[in-house]
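User: I want to check something. If I give you two sequences, will you return the structure for each one separately, not as a complex?

Assistant: Yes, each is folded on its own. Here is the first sequence with its structure:
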Amino acid sequence: MFNTKDILHNIINFVKKYKIILISMILSTVIIISGIKLFIDKKEAKIYEICAKQLIEISQNIVKHYQTSPNYWGLSTEVVINKKLYTNNMKATNDTLLNILGKPIKIGADEYGNVVMPTAKNFVIAYTDLNKKQCIEIGSQKFNKSFWLNVIKITIKNDKHTQDFLWGSKNYDLPIKRIKLKDLCQENNNNIIIHL
């Protein structure tokens, strides 16, 4: 039969005898876990930077393609795919364009990718079906100045909210602050709609 007093005494003696080794093992474990977390966080940050670069590049490719046209008439996701206006690290199928996260991108007159009609001088790039973290990270990216010069507004849309971020807005101004997105983005089904 086990004597709890003896077991406790043995544990205390073991800890006293191997205290330095136990502390070293605990510290090593904490350092390894911290290193792994830092590596994962840096890798995630890099992925979101690539998402931002994809957005910048695809918008530049579209503007360049239509530079001799008076407007964006006919622009849609399908046209972007057929004319290969997307970036190399995006995936394109018949009618679907996916960003580096594997999430659908819609391009056209609205977040559904409808065709831009005659005389329309603007278009939309929508990152769709994002989870909360993706919504926050992509929505709060620090884009370059030349990209911001083309942005009219950015809309965050999900089942609970539709919120426009506009230049000079009192509460919802551009560029988007991370803190605003934490309240607006829900767990799933978020869309970021960039109006250019």
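And separately, the second sequence with its own structure:
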Amino acid sequence: MLNGKLILLPLMFFLTSFLSGEALILSLEDAWNIMETNNSELNKLYLQWGAALRKSGSREYLRPSFSAEAGIGRSSALASLLTNESVRDNFDERSNWTVSGALKLSWSLASGVSLEAESRAIDEELLRLQIEQKTRNLKYDLTVLYYQILAGENQIGLQEESFLLASTRVEQAQAKYNQGFLSELDLLSARYGAARDVPALQKAKTDQEKRYLTFKSYLEMDRGTEVSLTDRTIDSIELPDLENALKDVQTSIDLKLLVLQIEKAKINYEKTRAASYVPMLTPSLGWNNNLNADFQEESWDAGIFSDKISLGLTLKVPLDSYLPGSTARMAMQSLEEAIEIAEINKEKTARSLEDQVRRLYLDMDLSRSNVELKKLSLSLLEQTLAKNEQQYQNGRLSFADLEDSRQNWKEALQDLEDEKRNLTNLTIETAYLLNLN
């Protein structure tokens, strides 16, 4: 099931990190290999799938039932045993004990047996699809988190740069204030601008630490392990047009699972119906023997050894199912209703998936427009900031107004990064929904 090489990956990575004393460097593929190997739920599904494969290939339900019996006993009239001293004295004699044995063979021929192989094949396919679904869900969660961490690192970099520039401006403002070239209000404005960056930087680092904790939990790694991610940008994802996407989503794993579950429910209905209404034929063959414990080969006596062979044919006709309100009839009605509900759920899920695809494509179109709009806004604010810096140098703009201009530029830059991240998340979610790599 699992590739044996994957089992060595976590050990190799941790040994490399330990020996070098450096952070564990992981690409998205490396992280997934570790997650796939360590995930207990996925491993459990693989074990269940292996058991289903073995059961699907077995045909034990077609084989007859075979048994062997052996016993030893002593029989005597209770009254004689209690009243006759001679009987009590001879109770332990060998000739009073009997050894018995039997061989039995039976074979139940029921019409529902023919559906068992199909039922087991569906069970095996259901587990295979559940593994595929679980793998897809884990990959999606890991991919989103991986690129959230990368975006978080970028966010921390922007905040640190902003704080460094603000601190430099405070030093410059303090020097000008000491020389009498800057008002106290402008100095306070510079200090406030730098102080405003402190909680923003702290929040960015705290959020990033939380993401790394979740990341290590996904991979079931030690919390103290230092991790560094290598993939700096998301791979290009080619999405189909809306028309083809709507066709692709109709073959999603979720719908395949629902279809198989409906097929399994129909088979269970037919098996229950056969067991409830169709007679069952059971041929049997048996051989019984009794041997007196005092039996000697040279003194054969038919009274000492006896055997019997029997051949039977039993026909069992269930009658309870034909009565109104019987347990069997109520069970059949419940199965029919369950099938109808499953059919309704399948249609509802298909509609929901189609609507979700339409919404995602609308959101992606809107996000692309917002990215372009925010780029224009950022470009405009950059030019405005450059113009205001020149006016400040010429003494025609206050330091507080210049700080407001810088703050507007920083907010616009952050808005653009947020919108890019939103577009990335929408793209990943769409690829996940369409089952794209």
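Because they were folded independently, the notes below concern the second chain alone. The first helix runs from residue 4 to 20. Confidence is low (pLDDT under 50) at residues 1-20.
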